[in-house]
Amino acid sequence: MPLKDQIKNVARKFIEDRPDATALKKLTRPRKPLAVRFADDGIVPNNPRLPSIVYRGAIAVDRDGFDAAAVIDALFELNGWTRSWRDTVYNFVHYHSQIHEVLGVSKGSAKLECGGVKGRVLYLKAGDVIALPAGTGHRLIESTRDFKVVGAYPKTGTYDEVTDTRDRIEAKKRISKVRKPLKDPVYGRMGPLSRLWGRSRSREG
């Protein structure tokens, strides 16, 4: 999301009740990751080395009096995924060539197309998290009216938004240079993302 959306979210954080690290541990559930790799389809480059990772029901929402978005936001921040925003997902295919992105569903449900038109449609609902490595095409297909996500990025990398197919060749060069994050956005340093992105093992989507 653009800088203005991130600034708006910073202001929100000052006035909301946010859980501390102890509370976040209780609100996080151990989940087996679903890892899916998307190949370059000639339009969207996707990521040649790193799979997208889905954690279903990883975060307990609407518990202990905390707002679900505040919980997800605080958890991502604790694990080094910052510059957060809260909104829906764009309904056109786009990707980020210079940074990874994580999306945590705080409310409602939706179908997201990941990997471009030749990729895969994933159903996500409140409490689910998806980590998208740089280059992964994504767009909203349909959603409930109350659908909202918290998005965030690792501390390293530069936000960009690519929609033009003519940028694909140069984008692939940028994607190859994006550094891996130090921590899993949900489970921290020892989380599955570190292992899956370290070894880049997944099944084809």
Automatic annotation (TrEMBL):
PANTHER family: BLR7373 PROTEIN, CUPIN TYPE-1 DOMAIN-CONTAINING PROTEIN. CDD domains: cupin_YjlB-like. This is Cupin. InterPro entries: RmlC-like_jellyroll (IPR014710), RmlC_Cupin_sf (IPR011051), UCP019307_cupin (IPR014500), YjiB-like (IPR047121). It comes from Tardiphaga alba.
